[in-house]
Design a protein that fits this description.
heterodimer; A: 102 residues; alpha+beta; four-stranded mixed sheet; 46% helix; B: 326 residues; mainly alpha; 80% helix; elongated; TGA_domain (chain B); coiled coil (chain B); Transcription factor -like (chain B); activator (chain B); DNA-binding (chain B)
């Protein structure tokens, strides 16, 4: 959990993924489209990947990837991100965290 | 204090009580001077509200009975179809099991459920059309509109279960008519396209509404593109996995490799259901958001316009299927 929180706080937008996960690819594409440059951490390429995955599961992220953090705060999985984007709050969160400017 | 008969049931005695009050006022048994006037007005208002509540209750009851009757007809129809299908030797699991596990007949079971849902949907939309054409009040419209939106939730839930059982059937769109399949995207319609055709139908919109609807259209399009990109990545990954198991020799190493690659490919196919789920989630969220931006009357017009559009697509499909061929 510490490593998750630590990495999540280092950039305005942070996404935890797995290299084989195609839904992660979708969420990354969405962030790039919005002009955000998220930090991407692939759990299967990280030595502490297993522990981090447990930590994400404990946060309620199901499936565990993609797991999105904005401004250091846990936002949710793919479903949450899409829902927030539809009602306009995703963009606002990114602006508030200074991940994007407009 | 006004002398009115005791009430036992609001919905039936509201009119009687109202008549009594009016009689009492005209016969002078109630003083109609200043001090009682506000009390009488309050009573009249309360009676009016009771009448309205009674009317709404009668309307809801009418709708409920209509739904029951159409369900009964549909049930008889389905039982007959089932009987016919059984006679033709098609295996259909007993009704008790069907709710739990669709097994090999997931596709057929879903098609039946979808047809049932569509019929109910059309019935509700016709009710809405009737209400709009007869200049019904906002309250009545809201009940019908909310009902239609809640009913949309039903089909998304049913699709979710069906995708778990047979994702390729949902993706194929074979449960939709041919012309609808033209526009198929991840097992359903594109919300962004729907919004595009609605924008013209919904005028007059306030500036705020216009901006919100445009933003919604853009957001749903961005989400659709993102999901499409994920699907392309999935296809590419699947292709690479299968190509990796191709090889000239038939050594034991290659066979082991083959099994490994197949296992990986199986894993990738498993993620398809997730994409359908997110696509449906997007459709659901977009409908809800659209409804929250619009007034009740505008939502009603939107739902009617959407239904008109899809009805035309379905009619086109029928024409196409019946076209004369050499």
């Amino acid at each position: 959990m510490d490593r998750v929180r630590d990495l999540a706080s280092k950039r305005a937008a942070v996404i935890f993924t797995k290299s084989s996960c195609c839904m992660c690819h979708s969420i990354k594409a969405l962030f790039y489209e919005l002009g955000a440059s998220p930090a991407v951490h692939e759990l299967d390429q990280d030595a502490k990947g297993r522990e981090m995955e447990c930590a994400l599961r404990a946060l309620g992220c199901n499936p565990t990837v993609p797991a999105v953090f904005i401004g250091g705060r846990y936002v949710g999985s793919a479903k949450d991100v899409i829902s927030l984007h539809v009602d306009g709050s995703l963009k606002q969160k990114l602006i508030d965290a200074k991940a994007i400017w407009f | 204090m006004a002398d009115v008969s005791p009430r036992t049931d609001t919905s039936t005695d509201a009119d009687t009580e109202d008549k009594n009050l009016r009689n009492a006022l005209s016969h002078g048994t109630i003083a109609s001077d200043g001090s009682d006037k506000s009390r009488d007005q309050k009573t009249l208002r309360r009676l009016a509200q009771n009448r309205e509540a009674a009317r709404k209750s009668r309307l809801r009851k009418k709708v409920y009975v209509q739904q029951l009757e159409s369900s009964r007809m549909k049930l008889t129809q389905l039982e007959q179809e089932l009987q016919r299908a059984r006679q033709q030797g098609i295996f259909i699991s007993s009704s008790g099991e069907q709710a739990q596990s669709m097994g090999g007949n997931g596709a057929l079971a879903f098609d039946v459920e979808y047809a049932r849902w569509l019929e109910e949907h059309n019935r509700r939309v016709n009710e809405l059309r009737g209400a709009v054409n007869s200049h019904a009040g906002d309250g009545e419209l809201r009940i019908i509109v909310d009902g239609i939106l809640a009913h949309y939730d039903d089909i998304f839930r049913i699709k979710g279960d069906a995708a778990k059982a047979d994702v390729f059937h949902i993706l194929s769109g074979m449960w939709k008519t041919p012309a609808e399949r033209c526009f198929l995207w991840l097992g359903g319609f594109r919300s962004s396209e729907l919004l595009k055709l609605l924008i013209n139908q919904l005028e007059p919109l306030t500036e705020q509404q216009l901006m919100s609807i445009n933003n919604l259209q853009q957001s749903s399009q961005q989400a659709e593109d993102a999901l499409s990109q994920g699907m392309e990545a999935l296809q590419q990954s699947l292709a690479e996995t299968l190509a990796a198991s191709l090889g000239p020799s038939t050594s034991t190493a290659n066979v082991g490799n083959y099994m490994g690659q197949m296992a990986m490919a199986m894993g990738k196919l498993g993620t398809l259901e997730g994409f359908i789920r997110q696509a449906d989630n997007l459709r659901q969220q977009t409908l809800q958001r659209m409804h929250s931006i619009l007034t009740t009357r505008q939502s009603a017009r939107a739902l009617l316009a959407i239904n008109d559009y899809f009805s035309r697509l379905r009619a086109l499909s029928s024409l196409w299927l019946a076209r004369p061929r050499e």
